[in-house]
């Protein structure tokens, strides 16, 4: 469903929507095509579902194409994803050949004529071999800071053929002799995950998840993965629990068909023991309203990740007026203003110390929460990202 | 900073507000200790010096950070060196006639600091300093002012990037001693006293929203004076 840009007047900073209209005047009639691997699931698809109709409403000829691939192709790109993020994956020459063939087939089948062609992530990145016109930009949503050498060497050959690359954080980028832009991800304040909810709606969902609302709640929303450090979160909670009667809720997507997830969840269960105030919640995929309700019910949000993508859950929590205690992963530190909208911590002990400090100071919780919401309003809403795209369209496709 | 112009100018009689949109470009150079920081400050394009000092405010429009430029912020928050952070924090870019002089001052402060240290402070648990620069696009916002009352009203509702553009970019872009605002109030409206008052506002004291408030207050106080 298209959300009219004017609906964002209530939630975005003063003058933003008018500014977007003026900015769009500079690129009216230009064309852009986004290409991604999937229509549903994942950050890129979630963003494009909202952004493309907004660009169209502003007079830009925006389209979104999704590549078609075989089961074999998607198995290959899954391995490539893991390898690019540093995991030890074996990718054979036959697999690379599958990648090339599917990219060639899609490049010939899709309409890629536009002033700007934005390729999202690595799955369709090989289509650049067949570029004809327009400016080609590669939007990399992955953390490429420590890729497996061979996998990156393979992809880099394609990256060099783009006019520019876009990364979510400086630290995610690899050395490339083309312009590299930085574009922080954003949240949509009107989406089910972030929209306002009534008290009864929130209570109904939280009750359904089996979480009593009788004590302060410390919440971490994250997959059950080692990098998200659920055991560190439990350790921090135990430090707090000595002084404050509170609950810890660790909510993440289900771990079915996920070997690491199952192991990490089992470890978290063991660490939680029989403590009735620790709740391990497995959420269904795209549980947007559940996450929204949990974040609104929480007293403080914890993001004790050792490594993150961008970790947009930090912005989601701040948007709901919650202070965030977060780890030093670059994405978290980029969103948090230490000691203003929450605390950046380096250890489970640090997290426990800061959580305890906040629970001792309810006024501080309110102040930091309010500062966090304003910080997100000005820096991490989809309206800002729309401005980024329009600006890039103007800069990269001069007419 | 690379600014893409749209050909709009400010005439004597009418003030035309121009906003701006910034995209950040990663230069790919990064420093992990203070010596490396000084070495890279010497090498990087001047655009990057501008980005980490002047346009810092464009990216922190509402909430004031503890330190008013990226260099000071990094050495305190990531390296943990409060002494160097404090020395870099008081560098006011408006004190330097050009970016090359500003670059020299930053290098000189870091070198002087390191000459008194037995070890080179470095990042242990934090993030390295990533050098960046801006590409800035001028955006005509469609707001004009022909009188002080109209100017005051427009300042109160304009996108805050226009405050940045006319207060910060104008100084760098035009190489003038004063901002577009005080220049127009002086030459377009002939209000020298108010122009001096606006010129005396130090833009490095706070966020862009605070700067907006200071401009509105200056206009209100002037308008309230008996003529």
Question: Keywords for this structure?
Answer:
heterodimer, A: 399 residues, alpha/beta, Rossmann fold, 2 domains, six-stranded parallel β-sheet, 15% strand, B: 227 residues, alpha+beta, three-stranded mixed β-sheet, 11 helices, elongated
At the first level of CATH, the class of the largest domain in chain A is Alpha Beta
Number of strands of chain B: 3
Shape of chain B: elongated
- The proportion of strand residues of chain B reads 15-25%
Strand content of chain A: 5-15%
CATH superfamily of the largest domain in chain A: Glycogen Phosphorylase B
The secondary-structure element order of chain A is HEHEHHEEHEEHEHEHEHEHEHEHHH
Number of helices of chain A: 14
Q: What would you say this structure looks like, in words?
A:
The complex is a heterodimer of chains A (399) and B (227). Chain A has helices at residues 16-25, 43-57, 71-84, 93-109, 149-159, 199-208, 230-241, 259-272, 288-297, 313-319, 330-335, 348-360, 362-379, 382-396, and strands at 31-36, 61-66, 116-120, 135-140, 164-167, 180-182, 217-221, 247-253, 278-283, 300-303, 324-326, 342-344. Chain A has 399 residues and is an alpha/beta fold. Chain A has 2 domains: 5-186 and 381-396, Rossmann fold, CATH 3.40.50.2000; 199-379, Glycogen Phosphorylase B (Rossmann fold, 3-Layer(aba) Sandwich), CATH 3.40.50.2000. A 6-stranded parallel sheet of chain A has the order 2-1-3-4-5-6, covered by helices on one side. In chain A, strand 1 (31-36), helix 2 and strand 2 (61-66) form a beta-alpha-beta unit. With 227 residues, chain B is α+β, with helices and mostly antiparallel strands. Chain B has 2 domains: 22-133, no CATH class; 143-224, no CATH class. Chain B has helices at residues 34-43, 46-53, 56-59, 70-79, 82-89, 99-115, 148-157, 160-174, 180-187, 192-199, 208-224, and strands at 2-4, 15-31, 129-145. A 3-stranded mixed sheet of chain B has the order 1-3-2, with helices on both faces. In chain B, helix 5 (82-89) packs antiparallel against helix 6 and helix 8 (160-174) packs across helix 11. The chains are: A alpha/beta (399), B alpha+beta (227). The interface between A and B is large, with 41 and 34 residues. Strand 6 of chain A pairs antiparallel with strand 2 of chain B, so a sheet runs across the interface.
